[in-house]
Design a protein that fits this description.
It contains 10 helices and 7 strands. By secondary structure, it is an alpha/beta fold. The radius of gyration is 18 Å and the shape is globular. It binds NADP nicotinamide-adenine-dinucleotide phosphate.
């Protein structure tokens, strides 16, 4: 019989770690939860707190050979993936002309390319009732001066998820794009290394527990998008009606 597994990328920190803990607490009849990130020690500490069997996969998912390794493991172990959570990602605040090129292309490599590669690699092992949760962001709703590449990568994740959802509809595999505003995690250690988040944004800060609770509920209800808090739901609605040239001008003006 196929082994029933859950795969979580970015499990060593923040939202990914919270997904691991909540899935571990609530999902029954799972043989293993596969935890992916680069920091082995953090994954070991997380695994020690879980009651399900956790498999630690120390991987840099931007490296092609590591994706090949994941593909081989899935094939060798006759896995059925019940749930895939793609949470690995980073953002760096700063203007395009000021940030180093590698900082910016790195966001594209991790947030877009690696997420696509992990998803593609998992699809053959998913079947009726399997679920995919992709960590996008409210930055996907509109272009963001001062956070341009990150917002563009998250628009990719949201768009990719919506299209994939339609492609997988007949196989009854459900894809949910998770679009929170600022979440209280170590994300900002990296994001703010050259510039700071708008204080108006920080007013909407939520906890990873809230984001993950809502995301798991929305995924369970087969919803397309999961948007955690009222202010961010209002922002999503505004982005649907107001011209994006106006919103981007206001964002730039707020940056002073
Ligand atoms: N926090 C927010 O305000 C916020 C808001 C909206 C959306 N998001 C999105 O939510 C997701 C999770 O963010 P977070 O807040 O949990 O950030 P975080 O605490 O910094 O976690 C990021 C995770 O990604 C992993 N990671 C980074 N590079 C990797 C690589 N090359 N290969 C494998 N894993 C890698 C990190 O683990 P290692 O360093 O151990 O590899 C870590 O586990 C991201 O996609 C982010 O864009 C965050």
């Amino acid at each position: 019989m196929a082994k029933s597994i859950v795969i979580i990328t970015g499990a060593s920190s923040g939202i990914g770690m919270e997904f691991a803990l909540q899935i571990d607490a609530h999902l029954r009849k799972t043989d293993e939860i596969w935890l992916i990130a680069r920091n082995r020690q953090k994954l070991k500490t997380l695994a020690s707190q879980m009651r399900n069997n956790a498999r630690i996969l120390t991987m840099d998912i931007t490296v092609g050979a590591q994706i090949d390794r994941l593909r081989d493991m899935l094939a060798e172990e006759h896995c059925r993936i019940r749930m895939l959570v793609n949470s690995a990602g980073y953002g760096i605040i700063g203007d395009v002309a000021e940030l180093r090129l590698q900082e910016q292309t790195g966001m594209v490599q991790l947030n877009c390319e690696a997420l696509t590669a992990v998803t593609r690699c998992c699809l053959p092992y998913m079947s009726r009732g399997s679920r995919i949760i992709q960590m996008a962001s409210s930055a996907a709703f509109v272009a963001q001066p001062g956070f341009a590449v990150y917002a563009a990568t998250k628009a990719y994740v949201d768009s990719f998820s919506l299209a994939l959802r339609q492609e997988l509809k007949e196989r009854k595999i459900y894809v949910t794009s998770v679009c929170p505003g600022p979440v209280d995690t170590p994300f900002f250690d990296m994001a703010e290394k050259h510039g700071s988040t708008l204080s108006v944004k920080k007013l909407t800060l939520v906890s990873p527990e809230q984001v993950v609770q809502k995301a798991l509920r929305d995924s369970c209800h087969k919803r397309t998008r999961s948007v955690c808090s009222l202010p961010i739901q209002a922002f999503e609605a505004l982005c649907k009606v107001l011209p994006h040239t106006l919103i981007t001008a206001v964002i730039r003006w707020l940056q002073g």
